[in-house]
Amino acid sequence: MADVSDVETALVTLIAAIVYPLGTGQPSIAATPIAVYAGWPNPQQLDVDLPAGKCHVSIFPRPEERNTTRYPPDWKQASVNTPTLTATIAGQAVMIAGTVPPAGNPHNVTVIANGVPFVYAVLVTDTLNSIAAALQALLVAAIAGTTVAGPIVTLPTSARLTAARIGITGTAVREVRRQERQFQIGIWADTPAHRDAIAGPLDAALAFTTFITLADGTAGRLTYKSSMVSDKFQKDRLYRRDLFYTVEYGTTQTEAETQITQEQLNTQAAVAGVLPYGSNFTVYT
Predict the structure, then answer these.
(1) Which CATH architecture has domain 4-71+176-251?
(2) What pTM value is reported for the model?
(3) pLDDT tens per residue, range 235-262
């Protein structure tokens, strides 16, 4: 789910990339070390870092917030895992190939034969041969003569083999609330030159950024509100500038979803206007 901590994390990532455009292994835009973090600065740490020429950029969520909920809470696909297995039909045989998926990417293998689905949920301890053996055990109970050799399952010529499919999983997300919250981005520097060298490019880059991407794949809209410059602590060699930006983002829920590998259609036939209906007839596709 996305909440205020995810917005803070996204802002930290964005700002760190702005002040260290070539990476943290290279000099910052102010040619001085810069610490970027979520939260309010620790005064004792500032007392240590500022005299040493190390500046700070803090990201702090302000209490100013408003409810902007306006979208229906519909589930939407967020991500789909990549299949690592394949199931291929050649004549009356089904060949299992690829690699066994990890626990975070569960697979189902489905074979439809004689109009009936046979489904096996792959285990992390499986091999290609054990997957084929498990499918053969399911099939032979209904279709005598089904055999297995290594990763290949072979059905008798009398069987009707219509499909072999791999089902994977993914995630879906829905927005349960939307809000706009103000964030205070503080630049804490040891000199006015360092403050300005950080604040100017940072403000311009943030103003140019319309959306930030959050951990759950959703986006937050970034909007400039105001800024403030303070020199009142210059006796302590602290020069400060605050940038105030709002982020409108959704509070979301995420769930795992399983891909459908077969559909079941139940039908009943009847003469128009004449009851009762005939027997139920089921078709799998």
Answers:
(1) 2-Layer Sandwich (3.30)
(2) 0.74
(3) 567 899 999 999 999 999 889 899 888 8
